[in-house]
Amino acid sequence: MKKVMLARVTRLAVLRFWKTPISDVTPSAVVLSESTDRRAGSNAEEPSPSSKSVEQIASPSDAKSEATTPSYLGYLSGVVTSLWKSEQPTEDEEVQKKRVSRVVMKHFSRSEVTNRAQSLVNKLIMAQSSDSIRLRAQELCKHFVEYPATRVIAVQNKRFMKTLLSFLHNTSDEEVKGDIRQCLSVMGYVDFPKGAGVRILSIDGGGTRGMMGLEILQALEDALHGPKLAEMFDHIVGVSTGAIIAVLLGAKELSIERCKEIYVEISRELFNQGRISGVSGLLLSHSYYNTKKWRKILKKRIGEEETMLDSCRRKGAPKLSVVSCIVNAPMLQPYIFRNYVHPPGRESHFKGGCEHMLWQALQASAAAPGYFEEVALGSILHQDGGVLANNPTALALHEARMLWPNERIQCVVSVGNGHHVNELETTNVKLSTRIQEKITRIVDSATDTELVHLCMHDLLPANTYFRLNPYMSFPYTLDEIDPKKLAQMENDARLYVRRNRAKIEAAAEALLLQPSITQTISRRLRELAQRSGLYVPSF
């Protein structure tokens, strides 16, 4: 009770001070309490003229020094108010509440959302100029991303599909084509595969060991004798460091040689850090390396304003998937950042989205525990996708089946970033292991890539599935930047290429397989039907 009374007394004194005109305030008035006023009320005397004259002739410097000199009561008042918060929130508290409070989204009824979608569809059909087409396509794309269920309205409108595909094939404006491709992608429209069937590229995680995977990809591109590697795949999937490679090849259209240069530059810039700062960061934020610096590097290399969906604007762009791991759910589960949306009625088993920035997807996919901080995007907390699916081949196959359910799988190339030869014999007999060893082995088993490989090897035909994963002569770490060890990585990968030349040539041959005459005629007829408005989201 005494504490409550003391807090109230202090608040009343402060409020009284603020109500007093500035000219009548003395420094001591700031800290006068209500109890002091009560005691002085009966014995108070009018100030004498002499006292007034003293106050009037006081020099400005004296007043200034008096005002700036803290009194004991002022100090005590500050301590008291800091210990017991006021019932009335302060201005700073109000500002803080506004900062942390969630943005209240306005909810629309189902009929309002449906009417809005129908209106946007009709406006796009009536659009004439290039600027109008672009504006309507962008508005419709944004609406479909926010309300995916309304896509059915556009898909079932024959005139709309006919108009949209007509714009795509008849206009020469590349910006208009890009906006239309984005709109079609959000609607769930999927182009026919480029070859005889669906061709998939899956790239594992592994930190700077991604240099080994790039060497394998370079050998595969050389075996194609001309075409760029990214142009040969319908779907590219990557996790962690594999996601970075997938984006550099599939979205940024960089050569493999340029990807190697960027890899070395990023590794040296990011992992060149002192042990003291690393340990302090690990203790304070569970991040050995500077996450802000990593975010800045990604924005610089990938682009700050480019979204996942922007990577589907160019003709022939592959479907792109970046895999992360959701860690704030009851169970760990993968999250797939996509540059596409599945057709209505054929939703993926895994959560995902296309609205995030490209650099955000990479940061989330490569947020290795202990190395970088977790990434919060909306209500989902992301961590390195390799925690759950370091070999994303199975996820890639599932996504491809949802996109092209009636097309056969032509070729699956799964690229690893190095592994050790497992010895089955035990070196010494142990009745128990240390807890650190237990944890390490649990993590190793969770991030094992070869178990997925064995399943894919047994399920897919031998001339369809190709696993290219070089052996490591040394246990390279995820943050390796030693030039000698990086050079040794490349030597290990080149040795693997020499020993597996026949497998790489077979993979290139499978990629180059062209559709048969029957397939070509069938696809051409379905394309003509789509242009006339008879679109069915199934192949």
Automatic annotation (TrEMBL):
Q: Where is the composition biased (Polar residues)?
A: 48-59
- Swiss-Prot/TrEMBL keywords: Hydrolase, Lipid degradation, Lipid metabolism
| Motif DGA/G per UniProt: ranges | 384-386
User: Entry's InterPro entries?
Assistant: Acyl_Trfase/lysoPLipase, PNPLA8-like, PNPLA_dom
Give the active-site positions: S240, D384
Q: Domain of life here?
A: Eukaryota
The Gene Ontology terms for molecular function here are:
calcium-independent phospholipase A2 activity
GO BP: arachidonate metabolic process; lipid catabolic process
Q: Which GO terms describe its cellular component?
A: membrane
The segment(s) forming the PNPLA domain are: 201-397
Q: Where is this region: Disordered?
A: 35-69
Q: Where is this motif: GXGXXG?
A: 205-210
| Pfam family membership, one | Patatin
Q: Where is this motif: GXSXG?
A: 238-242
Q: What is this protein called?
A: Calcium-independent phospholipase A2-gamma
Provenance organism: Ascaris suum (Pig roundworm)
Q: Taxonomy-wise, where does this protein's organism fall, top ranks first?
A: Eukaryota, Metazoa, Ecdysozoa, Nematoda, Chromadorea
